[in-house]
Amino acid sequence: xxxxxxxxxxxxxxxxxxxxxxxxxxxxxxxxxxxxxxxxxxxxxxxxxxxxxxxxxxxxxxxxxxxxxxxxxxxxxxxxxxxxxxxxxxxxxxxxxxxxxxxxxxxxxxxxxxxxxxxxxxxxxxxxxxxxxxxxxxxxxxxxxxxxxxxxxxxxxxxxxxxxxxxxxxxxxxxxxxxxxxxxxxxxxxxxxxxxxxxxxxxxxxxxxxxxxxxxxxxxxxxxxxxxxxxxxxxxxxxxxxxxxxxxxxxxxxxxxxxxxxxxx
Length: 265
Ligand SMILES: Nc1ncnc2c1ncn2[C@@H]1O[C@H](COP(=O)(O)OP(=O)(O)OP(=O)(O)O)[C@@H](O)[C@H]1O
Hints:
By secondary structure, this protein is α/β, with parallel strands linked by helices. It has a single domain (2-264), classed as P-loop containing nucleotide triphosphate hydrolases (Rossmann fold, 3-Layer(aba) Sandwich). 37% of the residues lie in helices and 23% in strands. It contains ten helices and ten strands. It has helices at 45-53, 75-78, 99-107, 121-132, 151-164, 181-198, 209-214, 233-237, 241-252, 257-264, and strands at 2-11, 19-29, 34-39, 60-65, 68-69, 82-85, 169-173, 201-205, 218-223, 226-232. The strands form two sheets. It has a six-stranded mixed beta sheet, sandwiched between helices. Strands 2-1-4-5 form a four-stranded antiparallel beta sheet, covered by helices on one side. A hairpin with a 7-residue loop joins strand 1 (2-11) and strand 2 (19-29). It is globular and about 60 Å long. Bound molecules: adenosine-5'-triphosphate. Adenosine-5'-triphosphate binds next to strand 2 and helix 1. This is ABC transporter related protein. InterPro entries: AAA+_ATPase, ABC_transporter-like_ATP-bd, ABC_transporter_ATP-bind, P-loop_NTPase. It is found in: Cell membrane. Its main location: membrane. It is a peripheral membrane protein.
């Protein structure tokens, strides 16, 4: 489903600030696989997601989704295949547009359309049904501007928007990190619900190791631009956070005093 082969990303190449953020990364995800991505600050997690989303060109390697070669394609050309939610609730939605306009825009991602964002009654009913999944009462506020919503409501809406066009791959980049614990939990529940409903293939970056082991089917750990651990199956289902940290220490051969703090943030 998702095939990342030998992907290398260098920032500031040829300058004094040259930084190899991804070192020939290989990663394959089967359809319906839900992979959590962990690693200390600067490990390359967001760069991996950005490379898949086409935020910037990569220096080497290739990225395929469902057998379609995406390397070199701009992000708008990947829009129908890849859904994305960022940490900042303000990033995924347009504040000055209504809930229904935002949803219509998201539903049309990757499709050709004119400039107007039409919402007919059939579509409105569909949106209402979809919004009721959130359990936030937003189905009765279709014409409210998104700027009026709270961070949690907005992030829930973003999640819905990222998945309404049924993407092949969903990328979640610490999408609950900016929310208060209770709201974060609601958005996590919603994530599991939506992913399960559409059987989505997911890459989710998190700094919360408990969440990394609780959610999904597989966990990868990154360090200095490489995948240093890849855990799944029964090895993962019995793993504790302590064991995960010990494994990381073994893989890297270094003490984890700092990483312990960074990872458990
Ligand atoms: N646009 C950019 N320009 C220059 N360097 C960048 C850019 N984006 C990321 N980097 C660098 O690439 C490396 C990997 O960064 P990345 O954001 O992928 O790490 P991360 O694992 O997501 O970290 P965090 O957990 O702190 O978000 C870091 O050294 C970072 O400073």
